[in-house]
UniProtKB/TrEMBL annotation:
Keywords: Membrane, Transmembrane, Transmembrane helix
Protein name: MFS family permease
Entry keyword annotation includes Membrane: yes
Protein species of origin: Microvirga flocculans
Gene Ontology MF terms in the entry: transmembrane transporter activity
Phylogenetic placement of the source organism: Bacteria, Pseudomonadati, Pseudomonadota, Alphaproteobacteria, Hyphomicrobiales
Length: 410
C-alpha cells in the first residue's frame, strides 16, 4: 500500500519545480478521459433502458437523475477516504466502485430488474465523485502560477471522454445479444478497470512537515464563511447547475419543436466539445486575465446562450445555445475551481474541496430533477428565462468582492 499523499514521506525526494504536478496532471487527464466517459454512457442509455424496464414510464429518466445524486452523495466520503489513505489509494478504490457499478447495471439489464439497474447508475455516480476531484488533485503539488494550467490539463481529459463514451455505446451496446445495452455498461466497467491501472502511476505531492502536522487546520465552518469561498462556491454552483439545467432540457425541447432525434444528438455532441475543447487554453487565459475575469466571462456566455435560446427555435438557435452554454461552463467552472484553491491551506484541502463539490453537485442533482418538469410545465422559453437571476447574483458577488478588495486598506 502506498503512503498517503497528504503525509510527508521522508524517503521521497522532491522533483524539480512543478515536475510532480505536471506528471500528475497528465496521469489525471488520462484517468479523466477513461472515467469521465461513464456519465456520457449513462446519459445516452439510461432513459432508453429505464423506458424498457420501468413499469411506470414516468420513471424512465430516474437512472440518469440517480447518477447525479450518487455524485453528490459520494463527494464527502470520497474526500474522507483520500484524506486518510491518500489520493492514489482513494482513486484506485473509486475506480473499483465504478467497475462494480457498471457490472451491477449490466446485470440489472440482463435480469430485467429496474431497481438493480438504478442502483448500478447510483453507484456509477459515486464513482464520478472521485473523478470530479481530479481537477483539485492536479493542483496539490503545483505552484500558484501552474495551478490554472494543471486544472485545464485535467479538464482536457473530459474532451476525450466525450468521444470515448459515445463510441463505447456504439461499439458495445449489442455485445450481449440477449440483453440489449448491457454490453455498453460492461464497456463502462472495463474503462473503470483501465482507469484503476492509470491512477496507480500518481506520485505523492511533496508536503512540508509543518503542513502535515497541523491536523485538520481551521474548522470547516470558519473556512466556508469566508467571502472569497462563498464567491467561489456560488460561481461554480451557478455555472455547473445552469449548464446541467439547460443541457437536460434542450434535446427534449428540440424534439418537441419537431426537430429530428439526430439533430438533438448532434447538438449535444457540439455542446460537449464546447465544454471541454477550450480547456487547452483556459488555464493560460486565467494566468493572463485573472480568475475572476474569466469566471465572469463564463457566466456572461451562459446568459448569452439563454438569449439565443429565447430568440428562436430553429436548429441553428438550439445548436448555438448549446455551444455557448458549453463555452460558458468551461470558463465559469474552471475559473471558479481556481478561485476555490485560494481559500484553504494545504492541510485543509480535502474537507474544503469536498464541501465545495457537495454544494455544487447537490445543486446539479436538483437541476437535473427539475429541468424536465419545468420544461413540461412552462416550455423552453421558461427554461431560458430561469437562467438570468442566478447569473446576475453570481456576477454581483464577483463585482462586490473585487470592489471590496479595491477599497481595502493597504
Amino acid at each position: 500500500m502506498s503512503a498517503p499523499t497528504s503525509i510527508s514521506d521522508p524517503s521521497f525526494k522532491p522533483m524539480s519545480s512543478d515536475a510532480v504536478a505536471r506528471h500528475n496532471a497528465v496521469v489525471l487527464a488520462v484517468a479523466m478521459a477513461l472515467g469521465g466517459s461513464s456519465p456520457a454512457i449513462v446519459v445516452s442509455l439510461g432513459g432508453l433502458v429505464g423506458q424498457a424496464l420501468a413499469s411506470n414510464k414516468e420513471l424512465a429518466t430516474l437512472p440518469v437523475s440517480l447518477l447525479n445524486l450518487g455524485l453528490a452523495l459520494g463527494t464527502i466520503p470520497a474526500a474522507m477516504l483520500m484524506r486518510k489513505a491518500g489520493r492514489r489509494i482513494g482513486y484506485i478504490v473509486g475506480a473499483g466502485i465504478g467497475l462494480a457499478g457498471g457490472c451491477l447495471a449490466a446485470f440489472g439489464i440482463a435480469s430485467y430488474s429496474f431497481a438493480l439497474f438504478c442502483l448500478g447508475t447510483l453507484i456509477i455516480g459515486s464513482y464520478g465523485s472521485f473523478n470530479q476531484s481530479y481537477r483539485f488533485a492536479a493542483t496539490d503539488a503545483a505552484s500558484d502560477s501552474f495551478k490554472p494550467r494543471a486544472i485545464s490539463w485535467v479538464m482536457t481529459g473530459g474532451l476525450i471522454a466525450g468521444v470515448i463514451g459515445p463510441q463505447t455505446v456504439i461499439w458495445t451496446r449489442d455485445a450481449v445479444q440477449a440483453a440489449p445495452f448491457a454490453g455498453a455498461f460492461l464497456g463502462q466497467a472495463t474503462l473503470a478497470l483501465l482507469s484503476m491501472a492509470v491512477v496507480s502511476f500518481l506520485r505523492p505531492a511533496p508536503v512540508s512537515v509543518s503542513s502535515a502536522t497541523l491536523g485538520g487546520g481551521r474548522p470547516l465552518l470558519e473556512i466556508v464563511r469566508q467571502p472569497r469561498f462563498i464567491v467561489a462556491a456560488v460561481t461554480g454552483l451557478v455555472s455547473y447547475s445552469l449548464m446541467t439545467f439547460m443541457m437536460t432540457a434542450a434535446p427534449l425541447a428540440m424534439i418537441g419543436c419537431g426537430h429530428p432525434v439526430g439533430a438533438a444528438a448532434l447538438g449535444i455532441q457540439w455542446h460537449i466539445l464546447a465544454m471541454f475543447g477550450p480547456s487547452f487554453f483556459t488555464g493560460r487565459l486565467i494566468s493572463r486575465f485573472g480568475k475572476k475575469r474569466v469566471t465572469a466571462a463564463g457566466l456572461i456566455l451562459i446568459a448569452v446562450s439563454a438569449l439565443i435560446g429565447l430568440s428562436g427555435t430553429d436548429i441553428a438557435h438550439f445548436w448555438t445555445t448549446l455551444i455557448l452554454l458549453g463555452l460558458g461552463w468551461n470558463f465559469g467552472f474552471i475559473g471558479a475551481t481556481a478561485l476555490v484553491t485560494d481559500c484553504y491551506r494545504p492541510e485543509e484541502r480535502a474537507k474544503v474541496q469536498a464541501a465545495n463539490d457537495f454544494l455544487i453537485f447537490g445543486s446539479v442533482a436538483l437541476a437535473s430533477f427539475s429541468s424536465g418538469k419545468l420544461l413540461n410545465a412552462g416550455g423552453w422559453e421558461t427554461v431560458n428565462w430561469m437562467v438570468f437571476p442566478p447569473v446576475v447574483v453570481a456576477l454581483a458577488l464577483l463585482a462586490w468582492q473585487r470592489r471590496a478588495k479595491a477599497i481595502a486598506p493597504a
